[in-house]
Amino acid sequence: MSCLEIYIDGASKGNPGHSGVGIVIYQDGQLLKQISSYIGKATNNIAEYTALIYALEEALLLKARNLRINTDSQLLARQINRVYKVKHEGLITLYGRAVHLLSGFENVLVNYIPREKNACADKLATRAIKETLKNSLF
C-alpha cells in the first residue's frame, strides 16, 4: 500500500467541554474514509490526541506502512515530533498510546498545517459534537 495522507482534528465546545474528532484519509489523492466521532467531555488538546489515536488505529486496520498526518495543532505536532516534552498529566497517557501505535508503521510524518488547510477534518469534528447535542439530553 502506498502512503496514506491523513487529516486530523479535535474540537471542543468549551475547554473542557463536549468534544469530537474528525479524520479524513486519502490514498493516492483519492478519498478513502471519513470519520466523525463524539468522544464526550474533554479539553481541546485531549480531542486532538484522540483524533490522532483514532487515525493511527484506522491506518493499522488498513494495513498502511507509510503515513503523512496533517494537523492544525501545533502543540500535538511538536510533541509527537519530540520538539516539546509532554508535561500535562492528561496528555501523557494519550501521548504514550500514540507513540506505541506509531511504532507499527515504517514511516510517519506528522505535519503542522494552517487551520484553513484542515477544514474538512474540522467540519467532521464539529459535526460530531453538534449531532450528538442535537440528539441527546446533554
Radius of gyration using CA atoms only: 14 Å
The amount of beta strand, in percent, is 25-35%
Biggest β-sheet, characterized? 5 strands, mixed
* Secondary-structure-derived class: alpha/beta
Count of alpha and pi helical runs: 4
Report mean pLDDT, rounded to a whole number.
Answer: 96
- Spatial strand arrangement across the major sheet: 3-2-1-4-5
Could you estimate the helical fraction of the residues in percent?
25-40%
Order of helices and strands: EEEHEHHEH
Which CATH architecture would you pick? 2-Layer Sandwich
CATH topology: Nucleotidyltransferase, domain 5
Shape: globular
C-alpha end-to-end distance: 42 Å
Number of strands: 5
The stretches of 5 or more residues where confidence is low (pLDDT under 50) are: none
CATH class wording: Alpha Beta
CATH-level-4 superfamily name: Ribonuclease H-like superfamily/Ribonuclease H
What is the count of structural domains? 1
Question: How is this structure best summarized?
Answer:
The chain has 138 residues and is an alpha/beta fold. It contains 4 helices and 5 strands; from the N terminus they run βββαβααβα. It has a 5-stranded mixed β-sheet, sandwiched between helices.
